[in-house]
Specification:
Shape: globular
Number of strands: 27
Largest sheet: 8 strands, parallel, barrel
Number of helices: 17
Bound molecules: beta-D-galactopyranose
Strand order of the largest sheet: 1-2-3-4-5-6-7-8
Helix content: 25-40%
Structural class: alpha/beta
Strand content: 15-25%
Distance between the termini: 49 Å
Radius of gyration: 26 Å
Length: 689
């Protein structure tokens, strides 16, 4: 990845390396094993604060000097953490007010990690002192390839409710609203006697007798995300000033909704910066591991809007789920290459060597407890070989014709409770629509509704509860210009202050969709409602009419019988579709097939067997790499040809992909760019409205 991490050639491979957990003779073995596995990058020092600064006035860098020297001698580059993720016990003992506080007033103490309030001036000062010391000592070290800011900012403490945070929240609100009157208006404090007379009366949404003011709670989440971001930016700016040639990153969690990643990612993009992300497969989950990986990777790529790096995943089991499933043989390689297929510039793990003590001792590592005579180690070595063979993929991008609209703020607003139905989820529904496209083999990005969406012929809005006027105008403009937009139920119904848009739902999108809904009729848990086209809806139904749209299906039973369930309207050069219920996976897949076909969008590789995931990465010069991941138990035949980068062979076509295996082809001829994909005829069922 020459442009991003100049000191690493080809794809990155490695993981979190915590040498302080091991005696020094193990370090020597570690470096030898890293070389055997083909490791190119080690993330060092993530939780080392107490080892670097064991007391306020004592600094101990000798051990880290030796670690970095050893790694460098072994040809392994270092992603050096700023170590600010876990303040040592001496720190919170000296500064008890720096500890985070929950909404119900509980103080979270040291003895774990991330025990700091993001607004604590003492934490910030101590963290930046540590960063400065590290920069001064290692800025010129030849092993230093990348700075790793903190670690998964806010993963345990997305918000703090202490008095210091309350003061900072008030400061943020003053900036946002200017006057208390404007805040009262935005928050709708006429309700329940919540009117504020002075800034000093405003507090975070701490434990209350009944539900919070939704706008207050939403603003507190915005504030909290911004407050943690300011810590990240402070570390970044300090390092950029002190060590200008060394790129910086922090490991985001793309499917963690505690932060507004659309605000975070731009701070980590561009010259000298890198978006990196972590992802762990959930064991008990409706989506398969492969579908989970595809979603996380697509979100990562979209956030990065360019190269990104998978900074953490696991070689096998994690330790923090109710049941921690080991990966079956072969999954290690397939999971890692699933991320690489979707744009990651390598595969990094938590962690290099599995711990023997501490809360994560049952978490897998690249070197498992069993040592190198183990399945995991053999697969780790195999993956290293594959990543070396894929060096030319470095820098190639994935082009997606579909954007799925995702707004973390809207998710926060919708998930706050006191909603028409607790089953009306947001983020999960977005992931479910992504899965439907993934099954169809159609590449998708995610995008914010106010972003530049001009390159996408298809826009999907599975769950866009809160939508600003600017967002609605953007979508309307895109449809007018020719995009095909499909909107899910309960979208556009409130503004950015969670204030209901009156005059009929779906509020901000009512005119574009040509539909006017009067009342929601959520369904009982597990119930379905029949539609006139033979499909069934779940979770949701609604009473209304299509003013200016063609009704493709109506509700067929119950109190809303006759109301529109699926509509379509021509607007300018494009088409606006609306579905007023939640379709089961099968019917959703059919609907998405209609919408994408109507826009001329085809799968990445038509004719791919269902068990095989096909993803293409291309360089600007047209060189393209086709990743074929067979998630099935049988070998598969795929209509593709090219040089097999992992074996060195050539497939004249078709290509055989072993059961559970991966083939990566350097394709013989450049694939047609999206703009050249011929528009397909629309299926008769969806002919002109
Ligand atoms: C991540 C974290 C790592 C480790 C890992 C375990 O969230 O950044 O430090 O805890 O989870 O899965």
């Amino acid at each position: 990845m020459p442009a991003i991490i100049p000191r690493v050639t080809g794809l990155c491979y490695g993981g979190d390396y915590n040498p302080e957990q091991w005696p020094e003779d193990v370090w020597v073995e570690d470096v030898a094993l890293m070389r055997e596995a083909g490791v190119t990058l080690a993330t060092v020092g993530v939780f080392s604060w107490a080892w670097l600064q064991p007391a306020p006035d004592r600094w101990e860098f000798g051990w880290l000097d030796r670690v970095l020297d050893l790694l460098h001698a072994g040809g392994i580059a270092v992603d050096l953490a700023t170590a600010t993720a876990s303040p040592p016990p001496w720190f919170s003992t000296a500064f008890p007010a720096s500890l985070p506080v929950t909404a119900d007033g509980r103080v979270l103490h040291h003895g774990s990690r991330q025990a700091y309030c993001p607004s604590s001036p003492d934490y910030r000062a101590a963290a930046l002192t540590l960063v400065e010391r590290l920069a001064g000592r290692y800025g010129d070290h030849p092993a230093l390839a990348l700075w790793h800011l903190n670690n998964e900012f806010a993963c345990h403490v997305p918000a703090c409710f202490c008095d210091t945070s309350a003061e900072a929240f008030r400061g943020w609100l003053r900036e946002r609203y200017g006057t208390v009157e404007a805040l009262n208006d935005a928050w709708g404090t006429a309700f329940w006697s919540q009117r504020y007379d002075d800034w000093s009366e405003i507090i975070p949404p701490r434990a209350t007798p009944a539900q919070h003011n939704p706008a207050q709670a939403l603003d507190f989440r915005r504030f909290s995300s911004a407050e943690v971001l300011s810590l990240c930016v402070a570390e970044r700016d300090l390092l950029t000033r002190l060590t200008p040639g060394v790129p910086v990153t922090t490991n985001l969690m793309p499917t963690f909704t505690g932060l507004d990643h659309w605000a975070w990612a731009p701070e980590l993009r561009g010259e000298g910066r890198l978006v990196s992300t972590d992802h762990y497969v959930m064991g008990d989950h409706p989506a398969s591991p492969a579908a989970q990986i595809a979603f996380a990777a697509d979100v990562s790529r979209s956030l990065a809007a360019g190269p990104w790096l998978l900074m953490e995943h696991s070689t096998s089991a994690v330790n923090w789920q109710p049941r921690n499933f080991a990966k079956p043989p072969g999954r290690l390689v397939r999971d890692a290459l699933g991320h690489v297929a979707r744009g990651s510039e390598g595969a990094m793990y938590f962690q290099w060597r599995a711990s023997v003590s501490g809360g994560e001792r049952w978490h897998s590592g690249m070197v498992p407890h069993a040592g190198t005579d183990s399945r995991i180690w053999r697969e780790v070595v195999e993956l290293g070989r594959h990543l070396r063979a894929l060096a030319d993929v470095d820098g190639a991008t994935v082009a997606a014709p579909v954007a799925i609209l995702l707004d973390y703020e809207s998710h926060w607003a919708q998930e706050q409770g006191s909603q028409p139905s607790a089953d009306m989820t947001c983020f999960d529904e977005i992931a479910r629509w992504h899965r439907a496209l993934w099954r169809a083999g159609i590449a998708a990005d995610v995008a914010h509704p106010e972003a530049d969406l001009s390159r996408y012929p298809v826009l999907l809005a599975p769950a866009l509860y809160a939508l600003s006027d600017a967002g609605a105008a953007n979508l309307t403009g895109r449809v007018a210009a020719g995009a095909h937009l499909l909107v899910g139920p309960y979208s556009g119904v409130v503004d950015e202050h969670d204030r209901v848009r009156t005059g009929g739902y779906p509020g901000a999108l009512r005119d574009l969709l040509g539909v006017r809904i009067e009342e929601f009729y959520p369904l009982p848990a597990g119930a379905t409602v029949a539609l006139t086209d033979g499909a069934h809806g779940h979770v949701w139904s609604e009473l209304g009419r299509a003013n200016d749209a063609r009704v493709l299906a109506a509700f067929a039973e119950g109190p809303v019988a006759g109301s529109p369930a699926l509509t379509r309207r021509r607007h300018g050069a494009g088409t606006a579709w609306y579905v007023g219920t939640r379709l089961s996976d099968g019917f959703l897949g059919e609907l998405l097939a209609d919408v994408t076909a109507g826009a001329g969008v085809t799968p990445t590789l038509p004719g791919t067997p269902p068990a095989v995931e096909a993803v293409r990465r291309s360089h600007p010069d047209g060189t393209s790499f086709l990743f074929l991941l067979n998630h099935g138990d049988e070998p598969a035949t795929v209509p593709a040809a090219g040089e097999d980068l992992l074996t060195g062979g050539v497939w004249a076509g078709p290509t055989q992909v072993p059961a559970g295996g991966v083939v990566v082809l350097r394709e013989a001829a450049a694939a047609a760019p999206l703009s050249q994909v011929p528009a397909q005829a629309r299926p008769a069922a969806v002919e002109a409205a």
